[in-house]
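FIELD: query
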Amino acid sequence: MEIKPVPEPPRSLLNLVTTARQENAPPIRHGQTLQATVTSLLPDGRATLVVADRLLEVRSPLPLTVGQQLKLVAELSGDRLMLRLLDPPSPNAADKDVIAGALRAALPKQGDLGTLFRTLAAVMKSPPSPVRAGVPTEPPLPKEVLQLAKQILAASPSREQIATPEGLKSAVARSGLFLEARLAAGNPPPPGGDVKADLTRLAAVLRNLPDTPLLNPAALAAAPRPIVAGKQDGAALRLADAAFTILRQTEGALGRSRVTQFQTVERSTPQNPDWLMDIPVRGQQQEPDQLKLRIRREQGGQEGNDRPEGWSVTISHEDGEHGGLDMVVKLLGEEVSVTIWTEREETAELFSENLDLLHRRLIEAGLTVGRLASRKGSVPTEDSTDATSFDRQILDVKA
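FIELD: result
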């Protein structure tokens, strides 16, 4: 079994724009390792470098700073010279402060993806169209809003789909985590759309609804009655209430998406990615649900041990019947281990009773099975999908 990273755009390739060299400077050869210094920054992502007695102008997808030292390798493609960064620069202290500040600002604004999807499902079943004495008093939600809601819900994978390798790969690619990286590289969203892109469009449509109390805060404050999915008849809702609730929950879901992106940037390195994302899914009765997913590379061979490198995947889920649970799957070499952490004792016992079945399924998949365990308790921080499990410097706490 092999877990492959979701392909990302090549971020470490510098495109050569112009070159000038001193007289008698030797030519640059394919595969040659070079040391470079950034001498100036130009518009449109361009910069000048001093490399092997040459002044090169390059276009870089990565932010560079004057005086920065770079290690490059020359690559010839036909008659084109490309320079690849061997050690892409990691965020410096200033970059980390920017990330930490952005994360602090995003944390209070984050909401829950599952709550939004349940609200959208409730609205689709009974679109708000308030009536008085049998006569509609306000129009229903605009068709554009309902069409977007339908599209967003339909794009969510079912539990059966996400249980397959291709289904899971597609859901990860569509999670919104990689949206900006794709756009920066000039690539379109993946087939089936992108969750963050779809929610951004929905929020934009809701913010620009014409002639609704959405644009009148006083009207909203007078009678704010938010939708409680499954507990309130959609036909009894005012249009403004429905639109405001969906907008607020959409912005909360987008806030959560930004938090997971900031956390991914803060935790990851080029060699050891650490991805955090929320994935919407559809249950057996097509009811909306969500999984929280964390995928990270496990380093091997540290401090004298010979543990192989591998991957760790944490899947977090919560429902009314079994409570919250976190499943941590570690694949080291060809050996897989699974630990299930549950909120309730009876849930831990239920999983313990079925560990033999899990063992057989893993063997049938051709894997070497390591440790399987189920226990009541909290998942360790290093495996948590909680976006607030971050380094202390992100918190600004004053006694």
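FIELD: remark
DSSP finds eleven helices and 14 strands in the chain.
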